[in-house]
Amino acid sequence: MLIFLDFDDVLFNTKKFKDAYFSLFKKRGVSRDIFDKFYYTPSDSGIDRYCPVNHVKRICKELNLNYSDFKDDVLEFVGDTSRYIFGDSVSFLNNFSKNELYLVSFSKTDFQKSKIFNSGIANHFCKIKIVNELKGDAINEIIKNNKIKYNQKNYFIDDRVEHLTDAKIKNPNLTTIFLLRKEGRYKDRKNKYCDYKVSNFNEILKIIKQKNVKKIS
What we know:
CATH architecture of the largest domain: 3-Layer(aba) Sandwich
Largest sheet: 6 strands, parallel
CATH superfamily of the largest domain: HAD superfamily/HAD-like
Number of domains: 2
Number of strands: 8
Number of helices: 9
Radius of gyration: 19 Å
């Protein structure tokens, strides 16, 4: 059995994190408009990339703020993101071995890596994969590399229906679980490619235990 999990809004309270992150800027007099205006680093490829250091640098130049102190505050904040892990995340992960757990996250940036690897839960996973596209191919690659039997029960947990849909179409045997937390930023609607819709990890644990018992019997 393999379990694939998303990070943002699944294991990690991204809304709470982003609100606290913005407060660092707000206390220095940065408005939401200025925060948003200089958020992304312009790219020749046309793909937006977020870098906190560059974000701070552009804002400091615009508002004539002290760059060094501001940058240090932001890097210190991103250096420990463990307080934003949902309360039921670790207890859920503790039910499974490291070899069963894979993290597949969207947004291939250093900022995303910092959020994940400074969250205190990275060591629970056999592999952490960060992608810039839909996740179906990444999941299938991991399954293939593990030489998983075609009929083995594998699970994919995400809060975005587009990722669940892509994964289910590319691997119909994958059990897709749509986790819609009340704290989540997105309110997608369940479709036919989502096998289950749940609101917390306790519900997911019951589903996995029930399906595995049925398989054994």
